[in-house]
Write a structure and sequence with these properties.
Blueprint (H helix, E strand, L loop, with lengths): L2 E3 H8 L3 H10 L11 E3 L3 H29 L3 H8 L54 E11 L3 E4 L7 E11 L2 E2 L2 H7 L8 E9 L5 E7 L5 H8 L6 E9 L3 E6 L5 E5 L13 E8 L8 E4 L13 H8 L2 H6 L2 H13 L15 E4 L5 H8 L8 E9 L4 E9 L2 E9 L3 E9 L3 H10 L5 E4 L3 E4 L11 H33 L1 H20 L3 E4 L4 E9 L2 E6 L3 H8 L9 E6 L5 E9 L4 E5 L13 E5 L4 H15 L6 H5 L30 H9 L4 E5 L6 H14 L4 E5 L2 H10 L7 E4 L5 E4 L5 H19 L4 H10 L5 H16 L9 H16 L3 H10 L3 E5 H6 L10 E7 L6 H8 L2 E8 L10 H14 L11 H8 L3 H6 L9 E3 L2 E2 L4 H11 L5 E2 L17 E5 L14 E2 L5 E2 L1 H21 L5 E5 L2 H10 L9 E3 L8 E7 L18 H8 L2 E9 L1 H4 L16 H11 L1 E4 ...
Helix pairs in contact: 7-9, 9-12, 13-15, 13-28, 15-26, 17-18, 20-22, 20-23, 21-22, 30-33
Length: about 1450
Amino acid sequence: MAEIRLSKLTKQYSIGLARLVEFLNEKGANVEMNPNAKVSDEFIPAIEEKFGDNIRLMRDSEKVTIRLREIIEMGKQKRAAEEGVRLSSFQPTTVDDDHNAPCPREIKIELDKLDGPKVIDKIDLSKFDKKPKKKIVSTSKIIISSIDFPGGIITEPFENFKKGILLPQHITSGGNPISMAWLNKHISRFKVGDILNAHVIQEYSSGDIAFLTLDIGKPDESLNVIYSTLNIGSCYYVRKVEETPNYFFVELADYFFKGVILKKQYEEDPWKDSSYLEVQLTDKGANSLELLYFCKPLAKEEENPERDLDKLVSDLLKENELEIIDEKDLEIVKQLLQIAPSINRSNKGQLSEPVYCRIPEDSPMTLYLKTHPGYLADQTFWLNAYFNKEVGETRLVLFHTDPTIFIELEPIDDYQFKVAKFESNLGNETRKSVRRNNRYATLMISSSNLHFLTRYEAVPSSFRTSRVIDIVYKLIDFNTRIQKAIADKLIERTKSNAKDYTTLTKYLKYQREKELERSDEIISIGKGQISLAAGTNIGGAPGLKIDILPDQLDILLGDLDESVNNIHVSILDDTENELYSAQIISNGIDYHLQFNHGHIELNSLLDGFYLKRRVNTKHLEIQIRALEGFVQRDSLSIYQDLISNKLAPTKEQVYKGLKFINPIFEKATDDNHQPDAVRKALGNENLVLIQGPPGTGKTTIIVEIINQLVKEGKKVLVCSQAHAAVANIYDRLDIKAIDVLRIDDQGEVENVSRDFDSKVYSLFLDNNEALINDLYSGKTTEDVSLLIESYKYANEETTSKYQKCHKHIQTYFVDQKGINPKDIANLVGELKEDTTYTTGLMLANQLYRSKDVVMGTCIGVGMNKILKEKTVRFDTVIIDEAGKANLAETIVPMQLGDRYILVGDHKQLPPFIDRQEIQEYAKYGIEQKGKDQSEEDYDINEIVNSLSNSLFADFYDHPCFPPENKVTLNYQFRMNPEIGQYISDLFYEGVLQSGPGTEKQTISIDGYPNAVTFVDTTTRQLSVDNDPRETSIDNGSVYNQREIAIICDDILPAVNSTIECNPELKLGIITPYKLQYFKLKEHLRGTPYEKCVFTIDSIQGSEFDVVIFSFVRSFSKGSNRTVGFLDDMRRLNVSLSRAKKKLILVGNLNTLRRPEAHNDYKIPGMVSPVEVFNSIATNVMRLGELSDVEKFLKLEPPVGTVFEDCPCKVKGKFVCFKVTLGADELSFKMPNKANRDISSVNVMYNGIDEITGKPLWKGVSDLAMFVRTHKTGDLAKGVVHVENGEQVSYSISVDKITRPLNEDVAKQYNFIDGEEVLVYTTIEKKADKTTIFFSLVFEAEVVEIQDYPYVDVRTSGGAIERVNNHFLWQVAEEGDTYYLERLPNRSVRISNGFMETIRNSYETAKKVRGTILTKDDQYYYIKLENNFFGVISIAFLKYKKIYLRNGDEREFVVHYFDNKQRLLILSI
């Protein structure tokens, strides 16, 4: 059982709350006096029985009012003639001949003497628009039978009616409404029995009761004169006459005119402190008998402080605009800012001043706003002004196109506007007229500044319509004439600063002209070039495979890249008549003809045919328009800001605490610029540039930016010059989370993540129609809700979306019940029909506006039918590979957005240019140049620089571009660190670092051990087989057969071996020249590597595990040639940086390093070509026929390396010698400082000569060599020399150093000449003198300890010898081995080398363990490890009171080494 609010019942039955509550409580409902209280619907029958007549009477009264409105519109004279009513009196009337009846009296109402009327309301007819069912008009003299005012006057029966009813609102004065206050005050003038000259205007539903109307004539003219002095908007004092729950009824203090004030404007009684109240007059009727409407005045506004006029001007006009504006125009601007100081640069296209406007109650706008309650919540209108000659005043026009709304405002006095006209749903002709008359409108106004008021709302006292109109006229003048004058002058100045842009515009126009001419070029496809494609079709369409020759392809491609697909062509017969239209499709290797028709007889074409490219200049047209708009009108509003240093910096600090969607950004190190790039992009105010060197994750960053922007509710356009880059980003997006639409190169929809289904939408409209019918039929809320839940659509997401719309209709149905259900049903039906047959364009508009992200190539976006109309606007435009897009390609998509993020690298591939076509253009330009041009305008190098410039590069290197708006990514994650560092040093000044994981990018290829290798084709002995020189053909194209042979015959077999083991490896063979590209593919045809050949222009964005690069250019010195566009280091950067694991370069370094072979284009931020190739020669592993210097440098040994006994010859002042390095014997020379003839020499490598690049050498003497290779304490093998002369002498030679041997010692050994001995080396350096000593040593094994101090030892020869040595006797044990030296006194000593080893083995304070062997008067002798020994002083032990015994083992501490005694002194 349902419940109904009391407030609804009081409205429905037109009864007071108290009366309804009293009645319901009598019936046992027990409800409180609260309009929000509810009562069960079981009481409805009782309420209907009690108060139902009120409803029926009210409905019939409304019908009468409708009929009365029709009568009033018939005109005052006709009504006066029909009614016969005069102002001075009612005419007396007699009633038949009944003398017993009371004589009716004449009623006179003197309106000029009336005072103090009771004000209730006035007639409101505007809301009724239906005609009565039955038209009845009669005039009768009717007698009053009873008076129940203000309810009405009842008459006696007349004619066919049982009675007549005259309601207060049906009494008029001169056809105009009368305030019921007047009638209520003087209704006592009417008496029972009076006769009324009234009209019957409507019968009651039963047909026996008539509703009447009475006109009492016009008021006195003097009243109207006084009435006319009352000004709407002015304030007056009033006194309270009466009040109701909702209104105060008042009378003017100085006049007797009556008025009404809405009570809810005041929180408390405004008359509690005074008898008079100041109010504002908001509305008045056409005559003095109508009610005045007042409201509470607004608080007085504070006067705005005076503002600096110069500051206001600078806020509106940019600095460069102020420099060129005309003085008279500047004066107009100042006048405008004096009356409207809020106008500035950001809002100059809109009226920001508040506009106050009354809506008449009978205006169609009133009904429109009731049926569209939220219409004015957030709208923007076009605003225009015109002078209405008929009324002699200016009127404002507001109009909106979706939906089409037209509003005309007229000024009321100088205090407010009034809606003079309002039209909606205009017909086609009216709509066209509105647009035609306002096509030059430049002003807009937001609904937030439009204040549409009722008669009970106040207008600020300071508001003046004349001021608003003045501002509007001046703003229109500023936005049209003045701005155009400024723009024209800026264009002239911009052209001088934007030479590259104007050059490209001229070049594009030249291309357009040539494209039209090229349509006449025909190529012949012979029989041998044609075959059926595999399966006879591609993608289901008929197809042929054709072998197109390079020169034929050039004709078809024109300025297009060879990788471009979908070339539209015509198939011609022998008479050049078109047989078919088709497209050339390429898979990168073969070319196919795909026909646009079915049922093609392919066999008829196998004998040959002619091809002609079909003309298409759309892509050129949109680029030309974009450039002209950018230069001439600053269409993006950034170029003037740039050259004036006015670009706003990004607000990246706002995103300091940004939570990244991709976790890799959270893990980035502090010096990694990737997170900074995302923050800068999100805080972008106009333009942000992100430079992404190779492998730095540009796509990852773009995806993160897109996700973040969509998360903020932003609409994003993503473009790139290359289709592959767009596809790469699209593949990385989560299209389940983001609604994405992708456009192909021709501007057509390619992919849609969520499509718009017209059939589903039509079903939705069907269900809406059924739902509305059910609501009107009276179904309960529960039933309707169940019905909505039963509606199912394509998927859960669509079902949820459309069910919400259905519930919206259910929720707001009550507010719309005044609308005929048939009208709604018809509207829904028409909408359904329109949807069913809607055009693709309309669906596309809906589709595009619903997407979060739209993607496409720069030109594809420009050619798109929907986007080129600019009806879809994007918050942000992101352009990838922006460094590769020319100026026009970048500007085309930027026209569709408000903010721009350009991602690219101006140090990689520049925009594609055809140098041959540029030469033709330059020649053409000189021939066709006008008077205002010079030959310098067509300098080829200047044209090349202009056409290869990008907006990214132009802005990135511009001195006025804010540094905080650009960022360079500084970590690469693609290349082997060696390749990455190489790229960083060559092209990025060393700032590019290698990220984690790049160290794993390795691969092994036999013969190419390094990550980067250069195969040099330079040769000393030229032959047919090894000729490294290039070959040129007539059109200037070049190829290099030697490099092709090296790649195909030498490198690829080695690479193939590796790939066979790792099939997933990807190979790229790259060359900058198209002819070399074709030659390589031809040589590799039929092999797996045919698909691996690319030109530079086709591989930006790609990556390969192995890259083989062919430089091609090689020519003799003095040939007066240059390497051409190979000098563009941006192209070389792209080529080399594609390699992930291995980079193999093939070229002629002799040519590439030659300065005269290069033209330095001086590209900003790029190193010169000569520097790059010199760096390649010195920093890269080089293979090929190398010079001795190059071979040496290839395997360069450390500086200081000494080569001994090098064979040499003395030639003049030089020593020419040979060094052996690896398997090579290399020849060098150095000055002969010894000035003597020698056959061998020791040389030391001393580094590289900075000037010549050759090794530096230094001769090394035998003594110096010995000192370099030996040290004191070394044991070395020596040779004994015995010379038998007058006296036998002995000497020892060690490594070419000979020293004499003591004769007594030598005799002990019985040496013979040439005998090898072991010696101990001592090197002494004093000042500049170095002395070398050799001591004989022998290895001795302890056999037996004899009486002190003798020990028996076995020498290396096996002989037993008794030696005399105190220390050996103390420490030696049987089996120990020592090196001993013989002394001249036939005694021995332990070798100094052995003692030096002991010294070097023990540091001071080191703890060691040892065993006490024996002692003498001075020391205890302690045996350590490795036959080492040490001693500890007996005197020290006595001092410390420490007692030791032979055989004790304990820990000792190294005290020091006694150099004199050659002993290790220990301590405890």
